[in-house]
Structure of 4-alpha-glucanotransferase:
Amino acid sequence: MTISTSLDQPLVEQLAALSGVCGNYEDWAGRPVSVPTELKIPILQAMGFNLSNNDNTRAAIDHCQQQQWEHLVAPVNVVHQGQPFTIDMYIPESRLSNAFKGEFELESGRRRSISVKADSLEIIDRQSFPDRDLVKLSLELPEDLPTGYHRLTLKNRNLEAISLIIVAPATCYEPESLKQGHKIWGSAIQLYTLRTEHDWGIGDFSSLKQLAEKLASQGAHIVGLNPIHALYPANPLHASPYSPSSRNFINPLYLDVTAIPEFADSTEARAMVNDPGFQGAIADARKAEYVDYVQVASLKFKVLALLFKEFQHNHVKTGTPRGKAFLNFCDIRGASLDRHATYEALYAHFRQLDIMSWGWPCWPDDYQTPDSDAVKGFSEQNRDAIDYYKYLQWLSEIQLAEAQKSALDAGMQVGIYRDLAVGVDRGGADVWSNRAVYCLDASVGAPPDGVAPQGQNWGLPPFNPVTLKQQHYAPFIEMVRSNMSHCGALRIDHVMGLLRLWWCPNGKTADFGAYTYYPLNDLLGIIKLESQRRECLVFGEDLGTIPPEIEASLPPARCYSNEVVLFSCEGDRFMSPGEFRPMALTCISNHDVPTLKAWWNCLDLDLRHELGIYNAEKTEAQKLARHQDKMALVHTLIDINERPRGMNPDHISTLGYTRDVMEKLHYYLAKTTSKIVVLQLEDVLQIESPVNVPGTSSEYPNWQRKLTETLESLFADESNQALFKNICNIRQA
């Protein structure tokens, strides 16, 4: 679509304000920034507006203004316990003397009638349109409505509305022990990095189960995961957990093949696995320093295909309880699972024809929408292939649920926490399944800051806030439910996205972007409701610039914050343990930060220089700054009586990295007032290489580096046992 060079700027600004495209914000240094009008135009276009001339822009404004007034009540409304149960109601001014009859159909199925006299309601606003004058009223709902999803029907003669009323609790779920002020600890890991004596070259759900049990035996109560969202089984090289095909389903590469019941039943599968050549391939994959995703996928999916045939023959066709459980799972997940599995089968089909086929935009037009005749024909002819991908999802949920059960049975208070990525890959299953709810002409990112002067463009298409509400938030609800399943907590990556996301126009760097706002209270209400129903604690990754709306909304909702020790330097000291927020998940570093040993020895800076990210001058400047940070950290350790042996912050020769430094830093972490702290196993093992270098793709093997020891070895080490015991004692003090 072309853009008129003579567009009236006030018109663009008016449309931007109506659409939630923000013109002003504070940058990373607290300085006010004003987004130029011309940068808002491609964002508005990405939302679907026609800005080819002033007349079309005016028409878009009129449409936006009328849209909220055209319903008697909005199609979806969210109210919160502890706040007034009021929603907006729009009627012709001529009907102010009328009575409106209605009915609530509660989620339980119970019905209750209501009667509303319009002239008894508070008038909030008036608006004149060419055909009529309307008034906006404040409608009070019954205060005893239970939490849940309810259906309100309201009508008066030819005026009728049906609205989904979501009643949210006042807060997210919080375990009783944390409410009482208890402090717990655990570990946050990238699942694929785990090594065991029995893995197939990648950490799996049995590895997770083993880790949870071993951590629990040391007194830990939580174990955190990277996103385990579905990627692309037919393209294992697409390995980034933060660029998934779907956030509603699980990556089946994490399955432990030998733990599946069909493996014990399948003579053919066991013969394949026991073959010396196959065993050699497993051994090679297991001892590799980095995950060989192609090799791992080849090994696992060969066997899984045989197990599916065994399952079909022995369970589905004969109607055993196990077969019925699978069919019940398919019924519960319904059309969403069917579309996801159909996408997986189509992806594999077209990738066989063209290795460069990276997603649905590469497919013939007839296959780019899930409801087309071509897709229906493919589904009829490839039902077994589609059922195979459903089977993988069923198995993944079972094994994840077993890992969580093992964590709780071992005594953990929380168990597993899952990680919800900020977006999805534009070529993946979620976008293909419901393209209307995504804006494909924009990508999510971050505005310019001191580290990235041009900002960050993550290449992930954002939810369209208007379409999301038109769909009664169904895609968001499903996503939250899916990720709160089989775990005790959920970490929401870039939680500020509940309020606003930085949209970058396609083909432009992030400094051409702008913030687009979302209905924070509605989305937070859904999170609180699902959190309470699933007894799932919620963390919000709120690093960086935090808008005041987030600070005002999340802590009262008992949504925990996320703090990183290495980001807490304040002059010549780091934050003292007592300054950390109590209602927080705190760690020393995370997946985007170098390991502790690499940070201390500036190896991350050398790596950035080697990769061409930093020039020599910047590398040296960063090293000087890092040295100041290390001195500040040592001073802080001394302040809390955790001085590393032989270390003097005034003598650089004494500042070498040792295991004692690592341990003392973890005792500092353990002393913080945060209710939850997590350590990285990489730091315990003193690993130097990172799992991810932000800003790189093929330059560095991101999301592939494994731990250097098996879990069996790590937890058998007496020095590690002593470290965990000390951390546990400090947390309990």
The chain has a mean pLDDT of 95. Residues 321-353 form the longest helix (33 residues).
